[in-house]
Amino acid sequence: MADKKLILVITAKQPYILNINKSEDFTAQNDILFTAITETYLPLLEMLGRLENENIPCKIGLSLSPLICDLLDNMTIRKQYTTYLQKRIDLGKKELERAKDNPNQKETAQSLLNSLEHKKKLFNETYEGKLVRAFRHFAENEMIEFIPTAATGAYLPHYADLTEAVNAQIEIGRHANRVSFGDSGEGFYLPYMGWSPSFDRILRSYGINYTILDAKALLFADSQPEKGIFAPVRTQNSLVIFGSDHDTPLDIAGEEGYMHKSAYRCEQRDVGFELSAAELSDFLGSCPVRVQTGYRYWAIGDDGEGKEPYDAEKAMRQAKEDAENFCAKKEEKLNEALKYMDGEAPLLLCNIPAELLGQTWHEGIIWLEQVIRKIAADGKMELSHCRDNLKNQFSLQKITPYPCSNCGNGYGEPLLDGSNNWMMRYVRKATERMIDLAERFPSETGLKGRLLNIGAKEVLLAQTGGWPEMIQEGTMPDFAAQEFKNNIMSFSTVFDALASNTVSTEWLTGLEKKHPLFSWINYKVFSRKK
Length: 530
Hints:
- With 530 residues, this protein is α/β, with parallel strands linked by helices.
- It has 18 helices and eleven strands.
């Protein structure tokens, strides 16, 4: 057994964007989820299948947000995704014709077309459209440890003084994990690793044994962790804390990170934004918004401008080289830590955002597989799950973690800045009102119960960190702002209807169809704990 442990945790999140009005109207909003399925979730499942078939030891942590799981399980989304793939397959056939006089582009187009046809078969036949069930299979053979997260990805420190709101996000998040994967899990992933001192007691009250925090939470703690981030510690209530390696995001996505190497595919050049409207007319159909197609023929290149032809074999070699570099860096860090561990095996937790694996870095999944294979072949480190390192939970060093996050400069600044701070007064007022409603109507059923349940959903959706994040990043900011406003206005309608004792059943039914997530929700989750 290796004397050094590496914990890889992949975290996936996105806002709840469900366009079910037109089966073939694939807007930029739909593209967020469908790109994630195509570039990350399907390749990740296929990678796990290969490792399983070859008996390659693999252990990774995976946090799939409840919103993603709900979207993946939606029947309309599954049908839309098949059409999404077919539209790109049809475009690929036209790309082959367009590139017939350019051997390099033609070869790349053929490869991309083959990949899409394979993914369509994989999605519809191998997994029967049930990706959540497919991921669950790998948890059952212990290749994956599912780590529950908050119901709608809320940045919980913003609600630290509203205990009922934090309770609701945690309780629904854990129940959603149980519904999707049959288990509430040992741990809990706090969105954006946002930590507040009150979370210690709350998380432990739900039987949660561990969470993952940014390295600053440990290194800036009231008492210095004796073994740094290379061993778990515990809070006053014996919640185990794993410190996340600060260097891993920089290794991948920093200015000198792997994903910027010249051999990799340039993700900024897509024919969906370069061809004329006439050439894309069949692909775009009735949708006036240009979206990415996945047909990209250029490497980043030495100048970083994406002018060199893409060479898939060269990129594969680069991914293998970068995987070896990553493993060497982490092994070196663990070897240095070994000197101070008093005989205990040091561990290092590397948190990897899912969007880096395939979406913003096309070769990300290839790199990850090479990392896993390298670790298995060398035997100098071993992959581990967080739950495998809880045996000494009640004898670990006690600390009081420093309040911080892994977002922005470490304090969640992008989620509350000049571009989006107007949202906070509305969502907090709605949250306070929902808590009040849960107290005023302690045991409602029937129409009032439905109203209260949909009101709870709208508040939860308004709390998601995805809306302010999209606004701050400039990713469809008008859409994100409008969706947030819709959540707040829908809740206000519920609040007014309960105050006046009148409701439009047609409006209520329409909203329930628009937001079918958490069909099992009970508004009393916002009640004050007695």
